[in-house]
UniProtKB/TrEMBL annotation:
A GO term from the CC aspect: bacterial-type flagellum basal body, rod
Subunit and interaction comment: The basal body constitutes a major portion of the flagellar organelle and consists of a number of rings mounted on a central rod.
Domain of life of the source: Bacteria
Name the UniProt record assigns to this protein: Flagellar basal body rod protein FlgB
InterPro entries named in the record: FlgB
Chain's gene name: flgB
Major localisation: other
Function in brief: Structural component of flagellum, the bacterial motility apparatus. Part of the rod structure of flagellar basal body.
Species of origin: Silvibacterium dinghuense
Localization per Swiss-Prot or TrEMBL: Bacterial flagellum basal body
Keyword terms, alphabetized: Bacterial flagellum, Cell projection, Cilium, Flagellum
Family as reported in the entry's similarity comment: Belongs to the flagella basal body rod proteins family.
GO biological processes: bacterial-type flagellum-dependent cell motility
Length: 130
């Protein structure tokens, strides 16, 4: 049996987006010396907001017995406004280091919240045995 809650579904997407953002940050850092490479990223807040609406709609469709389509992919775009070197590369290791630290904090927080959510679910399941 697979037990989920609205919050666990939202936290799953939160962790997925955080993981994607970490991959993009690592990709940018790995290409710091690649001529012409442009840093990529995503608007985390906008992606989370879109995901929350999508999750709510998917749960409504599941409850109504309607077919549920594939999950929308996150929108990855070039990062504008960064200083460009003469070789056309705009990756800043300072920026990428800060992004990685932010992403790690987000991920740790998401894991802690998910653990708490599943602890609450398990307590509810075992409430009758106490």
């Amino acid at each position: 049996m697979y037990v989920t809650t609205l919050l666990s579904d939202q936290l799953e997407r939160y962790l997925d987006l955080t993981g994607l953002e970490m991959k993009l940050t690592a990709q940018n850092a790995a290409n710091v010396d690649t001529p012409g490479y442009r840093a990529v990223g995503l608007d985390f807040a906008a992606e989370m907001e879109a995901s929350m609406g999508e999750i709510t709609e998917r749960r409504k469709d599941e409850a109504a017995g309607r077919p549920v389509g594939a999950r929308r992919a996150a929108s990855v775009e070039r990062v504008d406004g960064l200083l460009e070197r003469p070789d056309g590369n705009n990756v800043s290791m300072d920026r990428e280091g800060l992004k990685m630290a932010e992403d790690q904090l987000r991920f740790r927080m998401g894991v802690a919240l998910l653990k708490n959510e599943y602890s609450t679910v398990m307590d509810a399941i075992h409430a009758d045995s106490k």
